[in-house]
Amino acid sequence: MIRMIKSMPLYLLAIIILIVMGLPFVIMLLTSFKGQMEFMTSPWSIPESFSLDNYLLLVELEFFGYFVNSLIVAVVSVVIVIIISAMASYPLARLKFRLNRPIFILFMVGMMIPIHTTLVPIFILTNKMGLYDSLIGLIGPYIAFALPISVVIFTQFMRDIPKELEESAKIDGCSHLRLFWNIIFPLLTPAVATVAIYNFIHIWNEFIFALVLTNSSQNATLPIGLREFYGEFSVNIPGIMAALTLGSLPLLLVYFIAQEKIVTGLAAGSVKG
Description:
Elements: H1 2-31, H2 36-41, H3 53-60, H4 63-94, H5 100-110, H6 119-128, H7 135-159, H8 163-171, H9 176-184, H10 189-205, H11 208-213, H12 222-225, H13 237-269
Helix pairs in contact: 1-13, 3-13, 4-7, 4-10, 5-7, 7-10, 7-13, 8-9, 10-13
């Protein structure tokens, strides 16, 4: 009983945080079922009738095409980032060589570079490579920007793995490549979850590069597709809320599945510097 009383402030704080963080999503969901006129007259009330007109409008505006493009770009980018950054982190964490520390510092410096300062050179490079207005033209920069923080997270995780596992495998004649894929990589599940979710959320919501590097609706991603709801003199707020509701579902689903591993990964990755 005493322990319960002592925990009451924590439960109260958790409820307050839940309300503050969850209320915007609830408002967004309720607004998506309203008409434009109902939203203008009573924006904070519960919908008089839960209409699906806004969700039917998404079908007419090819919303699911934008959704699929975002899904392809995010999934492909994240998978490639995990493979490259995990393999790049292995020598930094497990092998001793002269440039180990300087290379790791370069990756950390890469985290400090504002990505939008590279917008013009990347646009020029994409044009010269013939990748403008293509999903591949988006995937390349997204991978490059995600590598620094991903390498840092994987490196910190690998440094905490006992070296006895590696030494026993080497005695049995295991090569570095086999050692990495069969022993080290399976132990990186929390780091993989952290890198995957962190980068997926960033890529899913990215707008500026998607706006500059694509020009057609066939290759536009979800943030670009939301502009379809902006007219010359008006904005379809309920329609935007419907699109945001559907667009946030993948993020919420993946995060709730892997939230414990994400917290563990971020905490472990910040232990050493």
